[in-house]
Write a structure and sequence with these properties.
Blueprint (H helix, E strand, L loop, with lengths): L2 H20 L2 H12 L6 E8 L2 E5 L5 E2 L2 E3 L4 E6 L7 H17 L6 H15 L1 E3 L2 E3 L3 E4 L7 E3 L6 E6 L4 E6 L12 E8 L1
Parallel strand pairs: 1-5, 4-12
Antiparallel strand pairs: 1-2, 2-3, 5-10, 6-7, 8-9, 8-11, 11-12
Helix pairs in contact: 1-2
Bound molecules: copper (II) ion (CU).
The site of copper (II) ion (CU) has 7 residues, from loops.
């Protein structure tokens, strides 16, 4: 794990602790659960919604293609909106999607893609902690009763749930977020074995 990522994870955890004190009893209880429970007893992942897709990371902030757990696992998802993600990580995700969008013929060029992003930021963006961001939702098909949130105020959200249904479930954005909204979906983003 490189140093930047380590510092990043440490700062995220401290920011979350700070937020938990003031904002959400649920977030606070999840954080004390994380602090008190041995690491083997839960599976933790980071989810970064961006324009337009989801970056998925394991607990060491290594990028993964999908979230894979066993039935009965306790799962913790830490959802990090734009203001809480280092620029280089966020821009890489957007760049990746931009390349794919050109490849698939959804846009004709990098310039066109960047104009689209700027336009949607102006139309749907908010500023939080001095950072412009577009709010997104994170929902998991079949698990919507437990995982269906909108990172509206630009703050991280922590979700804790038991993966009690096995199968392959899509992760999708549950909030209209402009041009790329319909592409914000990972088919089989959650696999419960
Ligand atoms: Cu979205």
């Amino acid at each position: 794990m490189n140093t930047i990522v380590k510092i990043f994870i440490a700062s995220i955890i401290s920011i979350l602790v700070g937020i938990a004190i003031g904002i959400s009893a649920h977030t606070a209880s999840t954080l004390s659960y994380i602090a008190e429970t041995p690491e083997d007893n839960y599976k933790m992942f980071y989810v970064v919604p961006y324009e337009w897709g989801f970056g998925l990371y394991d607990r060491n902030f290594t990028k993964i293609e999908r979230i894979e757990v066993n039935r009965g696992d306790r799962v913790i998802l830490i959802i990090l909106p734009r203001p809480f993600v280092p620029d280089e990580i966020y821009e890489e995700l957007e760049h990746e999607f931009g390349e794919k969008a050109i490849e698939k013929g959804l846009v004709s060029s990098k310039d066109e893609f960047e104009k689209l992003m700027e336009m949607e930021e102006e139309r749907m963006g908010f500023v939080s902690y001095g950072v412009m961001y577009v709010p997104h939702g994170v929902a998991i098909e079949g698990y919507e009763d437990r995982v269906n949130v909108v990172a509206k105020d630009g703050l991280p959200i922590i979700i804790e749930f038991t993966a009690d249904k096995s199968g392959s479930f899509s992760i999708y954005c549950g909030l209209f977020c402009g041009w790329g909204h319909e592409y914000m979906r990972i088919d089989g983003g959650l696999i419960v074995r």
